[in-house]
Write a structure and sequence with these properties.
The protein has two domains: 7-117 and 216-247, no CATH class; 119-214, no CATH class. The radius of gyration is 26 Å and the shape is elongated. The strands form two sheets. It has a three-stranded antiparallel beta sheet with strand order 1-5-4, with no helix packed on it. It has a two-stranded antiparallel ribbon with strand order 2-3. It is built from seven helices and five strands. By secondary structure, the protein is of the alpha+beta class. It comes from Actinomadura namibiensis. Keywords: Membrane, Transmembrane, Transmembrane helix. This is Transmembrane protein. The chain crosses the membrane at residues 12-37, 66-86, 93-111, 227-245.
């Protein structure tokens, strides 16, 4: 006596077994990497990281914690959904890769910064917190940044005027506040009288630095939020696959 297996049941089995396995393997590998990299991430979070980016930053975030499990589930179900619609293996593989890469690029910069309301902070600019200072080819100051909280993911670090508006061009005399360029001994020392007067003038005129960032301690909250987002997307695609199989392939 033979027993047939419906397309729907076959699809549910494949999605359940293969999809869950892929997500579990990705999650376990990611947790292993997270454990291995813990000393590096701890150093980056404690002291600004040096050459190592903070684990909450986009460069590292997607390779830590549990979020790779969500990525794996989404990529697998996305491939299945496109496959049952297109029914062309090579086209499906190419389009799945393109869509997944696009999502991986878009999410860190358009979704993740707003999952939790970012912290906005305005700080005084002084010689102890200057992180970088850039000028154009003529020596005109263009941009400066200040140090951010350890381990934070900074999405904005800009100078604002007394009215809170972002400054497009910094005052030319701001170079007096900065350390001397290499080989120029005539430039004021950053802790000398001229530099102190420069910073005092900067503060008197109302210039401050505006920071927008996600603190380091939000790492796991962001991990869970993003993982659940990709799992929900995977569930929606699974529902689409079942609907398509029942109504379009029957």
């Amino acid at each position: 006596m033979s027993q047939t297996v419906t397309r729907t049941r076959w699809l549910v089995t494949k999605l359940g077994v293969v999809g869950v396995t892929a997500a579990a393997v990705a999650g376990l590998l990611s947790l292993a990497v997270t454990w291995w990299a813990d000393p590096i991430d701890t150093a980056a979070g404690a002291g600004g990281g040096g050459p190592f980016p903070a684990r909450v930053s986009p460069l590292v975030f997607g390779a830590r914690g549990i979020v790779p499990a969500g990525y794996a589930a989404f990529a697998f179900v996305l491939g299945v959904a496109l496959g049952i619609v297109l029914r062309r293996t090579v086209t499906t593989m190419a389009l799945t890769s393109a869509v997944f890469i696009a999502v991986q690029i878009a999410v860190p910069f358009t979704v993740r910064p707003h999952v939790l309301p970012p912290v906005q902070q305005t700080v005084t600019i002084d010689r102890t917190n200057i992180k970088s200072f850039r000028t154009d080819s003529s020596g005109q100051p263009r941009r400066l940044t200040v140090s951010s909280p350890p381990g934070a993911w900074v999405t904005a670090n800009q100078t604002v005027d007394a009215n809170g508006r972002a400054v497009a061009t910094l005052p030319s005399w701001l170079t007096d506040c900065m350390p001397p360029p290499p080989g120029r001994r005539t430039h004021p020392r950053p802790d000398g009288p001229a530099a102190r007067a420069c910073f005092a003038k900067l503060n008197d005129l109302g210039y401050e630095q505006s920071l927008t960032y996600q603190p380091a301690d939000r790492f796991w909250a962001l991990q869970w939020a993003e993982t659940m987002t990709f799992l929900v997307l995977s569930a929606l695609l699974t529902g689409f696959c079942l609907w398509w199989t029942r109504h379009r392939l029957s």
